[in-house]
Design brief:
CATH topology: Spore Coat Polysaccharide Biosynthesis Protein SpsA, Chain A
Largest sheet: 8 strands, mixed
Distance between the termini: 31 Å
Order of helices and strands: EHEHEHEEHEHEHHEHH
Length: 235
């Protein structure tokens, strides 16, 4: 079984798009949906219940993913941000690649319906991810992992303020095999880049990477990251 864990906080505009895209998957295997909510004040929970999702009490992103994983019955867990959309053959083709390459934890490439955003995703994330795949894992928005590996590394470090996904896959790569799945890209929302600016956002993540390499996980508020402060712009 595949367990799909979705951390949320006030995602009434984006969550239905993701859940509909999962519902339309050309995937014949068994899966379950788990929404880990951090106290939404809109109707996010109602939407999740309408799609028959399990509901976990979440929190900051790392805690949300961990709480969702506790409800997971599958031997594979797909951690997905609420503001992405999965193409119809996304799960089927990427799972096939995952098993063929004998991977234990994986990230994915990003795309956008907007040509400019798609180009920026390609040069700022997809290309670097492929180059550093074997020595410095990169990840954004979505992670596929074997449940036993998730348990071995103790889940996500809930004290991390920014870059908990990077810390997670790099820990996983030390005891399992990491890979970038290239079969089908996800449609990722550029809302964080539109809200804060592409240069400012990528500079923040670049500095986060630098900080992690030399000082370890970011457990202070040095980068002033805030969970879900982005405007709801669908692109």
């Amino acid at each position: 079984m595949l367990s799909i864990v979705i951390p949320t906080l006030n995602e009434k505009d984006y969550l239905p798009l993701l859940l509909e895209s999962i519902k339309k998957q050309n995937f014949r295997g068994e899966y379950e949906l788990i929404v880990s909510d951090a106290g939404s004040e809109d109707n996010t929970i109602e939407i999740a219940e309408n799609f028959r999702c399990k509901i976990a009490q979440g929190g900051w992103p790392g805690k949300g993913k961990n709480e969702g994983a506790k409800l997971a019955n599958g031997d594979l867990i797909l951690f997905v941000d609420a503001d992405v959309v999965l193409p119809e053959d996304f799960i089927e083709k990427n799972l096939k690649e995952f098993w063929l390459k004998k991977i234990d934890v994986a990230s994915f490439c990003l795309q956008s319906a907007n040509k400019i955003h798609n180009f920026l995703f390609e040069i700022l994330f997809n290309f670097p991810s492929k180059i550093t795949e074997n020595f410095l894992p990169q990840v954004m928005n979505i992670i596929l992992v074997k449940k036993d590996l998730h348990q071995k590394i103790g889940g996500f470090d809930e004290e991390i303020k920014l870059g908990e996904e990077l810390d997670y896959v790099r820990k996983g790569a030390k005891i399992g095999k990491f890979g970038v799945l290239k079969s089908v890209k996800i449609f990722a929302s550029p809302r964080r880049f539109q809200q804060d600016g592409w240069f400012k956002t990528w500079s923040k993540y670049f500095l986060c990477q630098f900080y992690m390499l030399f000082f370890g996980p970011v457990k202070s508020d040095i980068f002033k990251y805030r969970f879900n402060h982005y405007k709801n712009k669908k692109t």
